[in-house]
Amino acid sequence: MTTKRNEEPIDYTGKKIGMWFFLFTELLFFGGVFLLYSIYRYKFPADFHSGAREENLVLGSVNTAVLLTSSLFMALAVRALRRGRSRLSIAFQGATISLGMVFLVIKGFEWGAKIAKGIYPNGPALLRMSNGGILFFGLYYTMTGLHALHVAIGLVLISFMVHDTRRRVIDEKNFARLENTGLYWHFVDIVWIYLFPLFYLIT
């Protein structure tokens, strides 16, 4: 028997508006941190340029490519589900999760390299730096740490989407949650697009 759910399109306008409102609050949050970065960079331009030389441009560039590709896969996952191709959508969601994990692993290597040099909060190498250098790395750990946390949250959300797609809880007629998760993931990627030049390209 065909259910009413399958006969009528589902109106998820409210859910989408709710997600956009949530992303707006996130934008305000990150915007405040970016503003703080701009103020201190204006006050200590030489120290910020010096601090950026400690960043690994190659790994940062690879991570940028990884996140951009993951964002593409997420968009393809939503597109596949809307066309009724659940298995293909699951494959793209899995690829997104894999690339997100690669991003976190690379970021972990970057943090580990700095920690090994003593560049970490209250670390010996950091305490020998000027005030501007201390602020630079303080903002680096804070901003990239917050971003990494959002990436981890995104991976958990996408994992739930894979589970629900397999169980047909979400499908071509009820894909609001996957689409909203995609919006969140794209937002996380956009934040990194701004973080990358601020910390890696100011040398």
CATH topology: Four Helix Bundle (Hemerythrin (Met), subunit A)
* Helix amount: over 70%
Number of helices: 8
Q: Mean of residue pLDDT?
A: 90
**Largest sheet properties:** none
- Give the class from helix and strand content and strand pairing: mainly alpha
Number of domains: 1
Architecture per CATH nomenclature, i.e. the level-2 architecture: Up-down Bundle
CATH superfamily: Cytochrome c oxidase, subunit III, four-helix bundle
Separation, N- and C-terminal Cα atoms:
65 Å
Low-confidence stretches: 1-9
CATH class: Mainly Alpha
Write down the Rg.
20 Å
Shape: elongated
> How many strand units?
0
Q: In sequence order, what are the helices and strands, one letter per element?
A: HHHHHHHH
Strand content: under 5%
Summarize the structure.
The chain is mostly helical.
Question: Could you characterize what this model shows?
Answer:
It is built from 8 helices and no strands. The N and C termini lie far apart (65 Å). It has a single domain, classed as Four Helix Bundle (Hemerythrin (Met), subunit A), CATH 1.20.120. It has 203 residues and is an all-alpha fold.
Topology:
Blueprint lengths: L3 H4 L5 H31 L1 H8 L4 H26 L3 H31 L7 H4 L3 H36 L9 H25 L3
Helix pairs in contact: 2-7, 2-8, 3-7, 4-5, 4-8, 5-7, 7-8
List its traits.
single chain; 8 helices; elongated; 203 residues; mainly alpha; 0% strand; Four Helix Bundle (Hemerythrin (Met), subunit A)
